[in-house]
Amino acid sequence: MTQNAIPSSDYGRPRARRLVHMAFVYACLVALTLFILLPLGWMITAALKPDNVPVFTFPPEWFPTEYFNFGTFVEALTQPNEPYLRFAANSLLLASINIVGAVLSNSLIAYAFARLEFRGKNVLFAIVLATMLLPAPVLLIPQFLLFFNIGWYGTVDGFPAGYLPLTVPAFTGNPFFIFLLRQYMRTIPKELDEAARIDGAGFWTIYWRIVLPLSVPALVVIGVFTFLGVWNDFFGPLLYLDDQNWFTVPLALAREVTKVGTEWNIVMAATLIAMLPPLIVYGFSQNKLMGGIASVGIRG
Amino acid sequence: MGQQLGDQGARGEQLSEGGTATPMAALADRPSGRRKPGSHGEERAAYLFLSPWLIGVFFFLLVPLGWAIWLGFTDEQLLRSGNFIGLDNYVRAFTQDESFYKALGVTLTWIVIAVPLFLISGLLVALLLNQKMRGMSFFRTILYVPAVLSGVAIAVLWFTLLNGELGAVNQVLRSIGIENPPDWFRDPDFALWGVAIMSIWGVGTNAIIYLAGLQNIPPDLYEAASMDGAGPWAKFRNITLPLLSPTMFFLLIGELTAALVIIGPIIVISGAGGAAGPADSLLFYMLLLYRVGFVEGQMGYAAALAWILTVIGLLLVWITFRLEKRFVFYQS
Predict the structure, then answer these.
(1) Same domain membership, residue A267 and residue A222
(2) How far apart are CA A165 and CA A149, in angstroms?
(3) CATH class of the domain defined by B99-327
């Protein structure tokens, strides 16, 4: 135990009491960790069982000991009636388009608010903030009718027209992302712009060659949030998609539990497939997310 | 879009973590004094850069918003345009529609259960994580995991775990001597508690936000209080709680609005086609709206229901802001 492992308020507390205190905190945290991990362990155990072994046992099996049948995942990914490989590809396609749209549109919009002077700037920025507060349920019905009436729904001649309402709005910016990026861009020194102006650069060049590259940490944050939002989205695809070929992972998964004759090992494998990409992204971006927001200033 | 409606993971509030100033502060920090107006070319460039947003606001916000007001006064159907029927939709909701009151009851019950539960549990977990001991970043990482996972996947997992006969939770309950554990999602008295157990699995989300608030409290306040002989409870009551009240207020608004619009996981649990669990015990307001609008195709009535929900939401937020003045303490 090093000195700085002791909270400042503990100075002078008797050693025995400090140990009891630490034991209590660790016991609570271990219990919480088990509460988070055991359900996931049960899920993995169930997914690794072959088809003829019961998934529900007494007592419950919280981690795999006996069966390691990775074939369940292969089956979930490739089964002809519900191929999760296909659904995952659909989800990835939607996520990629949304990430491109979010990075492009929000950086363009935020650049104007952070760097340019124009009439109505404060009013327009106040509108950006106000749209954060717009009640989503009210827009639900008319937005659906709008898209439905212009044919952005379901599948038309093999083209997933229902993907349009799930992607096009990303290209028009999002108030939270505009705000985040604008705050970030304001920390990039304006001298860089002015130097470039003297060298004859236009606004587009300054955006593309200076501000955009320097905003990469904030853009990574936006990309991660967009990925998580789209990969996990259920309600949007539920409203706009009608052809199973174009279903996303959550949409396909949601139908599994209420189906008659559910094969639970396959369902748990599919659930794991739905959870894995966000977990991987979380694992890689945890530090970058924090660093992306914190790191300020310029390189070179 | 749909993804704003209560799915976990990408809730906007997470964006303001990590030291970014709040939106309201940003409005106030406009440069003081007269600003030199931009040149003509600069102004034209600015509007070009803004054009994606201007187009989006017009087509995806202003047009639908205006249309929503009109729709509430019509009997529009999904495949048949409607006629103006005045206030009939609103009169129908309040005087003829039993499921409207059922949905209000379920949603308000959920608020009474969920909001205090999530605010208090998040605080307790944050207090644990704020101890200066080894391994805290490990616990923090694990506890935040459910926040990034798909709401559907979480619902499928807990639907399985909370199965009445075979589910792991009831196996554990039986083994510790509870002979007749509840049949969670198939028992009208326990279905909401099943949703609560499922949701509290994500306790880490609020805990991380509280933790940021806790770490902003200057440590010398505690040291000064210790010298004055204050015990742990006195320090919590007189330092931690007041200095944490802005964070708590922020979370309160977030939990309140999230509780009003919860729907995704509920559709997974109660089944497609607008089903709402045993005896409609899971008929959340948004599920009623989904059933009326998208299953039955009564778009006009659904639009009216959405406006009623919005007014209720605004009322609750207004009441909360009134309470803010009395209970929230801001450091000057």
Answers:
(1) yes
(2) 12
(3) mainly alpha
Residues of A whose CB is below 8 A from B42: 116-118, 203
- How distant is the Cα of A158 from the closest Cα of chain B, in angstroms? 22
Give the C-alpha separation, B159 to B183, whole Å: 11
Residue A299 lies in a domain: no
For residue A59, say if its preceding peptide bond is cis, omega within 30 degrees of 0.
yes
Structure tokens given for B29? 């920090």
Q: Which domain holds residue A26?
A: 3-69
Q: What residue segments make up the domains of chain B, in order of their start?
A: 99-327
A11 occurs within a structural domain: yes
Residue B64 has its nearest CB partner, among A4, A62, A146, at A146
- What CATH number corresponds to the domain at position A173? 1.10.3720.10
Residue that finishes a domain, picked among A19, A35, A69: A69
* ipTM, two decimals: 0.88
Map A125-140 to HEC letters. HHHHHHHHCCCHHHHH
Q: Do A145 and B133 touch (CB under 8 A)?
A: no
Residue with tokens 């970030």: A184
For residue B148, the chain A residue with the least C-alpha distance is A278
Q: Provide, rounded to the nearest whole percent, the portion of chain B with pLDDT above 70.
A: 88
The total number of structural domains that make up chain A: 2
Tokens of A67: 């069966």
Enter the DSSP assignment of A154. Answer: S
**A252: contact with B, CB 8 A cutoff:** no
Distance CA B240, CA A298 (A): 37
At residue A234's C-alpha, the angle toward residues B18 and B107, to 5°, is 80
B84 three-class SS: strand
Closest partner residue to A290 (CB to CB) among B10, B18, B68 is B18
Query: In this structure, is residue A300 part of a structural domain?
Result: no
Question: Is B67 part of the contact surface with chain A (CB cutoff 8 Å)?
Answer: yes
* 3-class DSSP assignment, residue B304: helix
Calculate what percentage of chain A has a pLDDT beyond 90. Answer: 73
Helices (H) and strands (E) in chain A, counts: 14, 0
Model confidence pLDDT, tens digit, residues B152-172: 999 999 999 999 888 999 999
| Token pair belonging to B67 | 């249309």
* Token pair listed for B53: 């947003």
Q: pTM for the full model?
A: 0.88
Task: Pick the range with the lowest mean pLDDT from A89-98, A168-177, B11-20, B244-253.
Answer: B11-20
pLDDT at A3 over 90: no
Say how many CA atoms lie within 13 Å of B141 toward its Cβ.
Answer: 13
